[in-house]
Amino acid sequence: MKKKPAVVSRRTGWVPALLLVFFAGGVLTAWLMARHNTVPSVRKPTIPYPVERNADMNAAAVIPPPVSMPLAPVDQGKLLAIIIDDIGYRREPVERLLAAGIPLTFSVMPDQPYTKELAAQIAAAGQEVMLHLPMEPENDRTNNPGAGALLLTEPDEDIRAAIGHDLGQVPQAKGVNNHMGSLFTQDERKMEVVLAELKTRNLFFVDSLTAPNSVGYAVARRLGLKSAARRVFIDNDPGPDAISRHLRLAIDLAVKEGAVVAIGHPGAVTVAAIEKLKDDLVKAGVTPVFASRVVR
Question: What pLDDT digit, counting tens, does each position of 258-281 carry?
Answer without folding.
Answer: 899 999 999 999 999 999 999 999
